[in-house]
Amino acid sequence: MKRIFFFFLLMSAMAACKNEPKATATGDETSVTQTRPITPPEGGPIVGPKKPPSMQTEMLIGFLTTDYWYIEAYVKINDRDSALENRGRWYRFAPDGTFVSGKYKKQDAKGIWTFDPQTALIYVDSENDAQDGEWKIQMGKSGSVMIWIGTERFLQNSIQIKLENYLELMAELPSPSH
């Protein structure tokens, strides 16, 4: 009798467990959007050891939080369509660790971001989980172009993105320079 009771208890415990669907970074417009409050990171967007940021980090944050960062090129291994789907997407990062994002003139998400100067990684936590990401940043000296290289954390290690800084939102991007 104890075995039967234990068996039913175990089965009901297993039935109560649910596997939540995982969001994937496919660029699909129909992805699940989680709505949760977006709170700026405590202490600002720079993470890591609590010491004053270096001059290089301050410059990078200054460039990053200036105007709009548009995706000019999106390269994903074995997926040519993703380049067209993501061209025109943009981010606008605020110094308090929040951001808004969208495509061309339409805003479609907001969230928080952090930067780790020790690893040069930016973490983007969007209210739309399909847009979450962790990227290694390479910033051009002028601060008007940056490259994001995906990491394994969100299975984005096959993605590289070129972003360019623009003053305002646009209905379309200028033709890519060759």
Describe this entry's structure for a reader.
With 178 residues, the chain is α+β, with helices and mostly antiparallel strands. The protein has a domain at 58-173: Lipocalin. Helix content is 17%, strand content 33%. It has 3 helices and 8 strands; from the N terminus they run ααβαβββββββ. It has helices spanning 2-16, 55-64, 81-86, and strands at 68-76, 89-93, 98-103, 106-116, 121-126, 133-139, 145-150, 159-166. It has an 8-stranded antiparallel barrel. A hairpin with a 2-residue loop joins strand 3 (98-103) and strand 4 (106-116). It is globular and about 40 Å long. The model is unreliable at 2-34 (pLDDT under 50).
Structure summary:
The protein contains 3 helices and 8 strands; from the N terminus they run H-H-E-H-E-E-E-E-E-E-E. It is of the alpha+beta class.
Structural descriptors:
178 residues, alpha+beta, Lipocalin, eight-stranded antiparallel barrel, 3 helices, 8 strands, disordered N terminus
List the helices and strands and how they pair.
Blueprint: H1 2-16, H2 55-64, E1 68-76, H3 81-86, E2 89-93, E3 98-103, E4 106-116, E5 121-126, E6 133-139, E7 145-150, E8 159-166
Antiparallel strand pairs: 1-2, 1-8, 2-3, 3-4, 4-5, 5-6, 6-7, 7-8
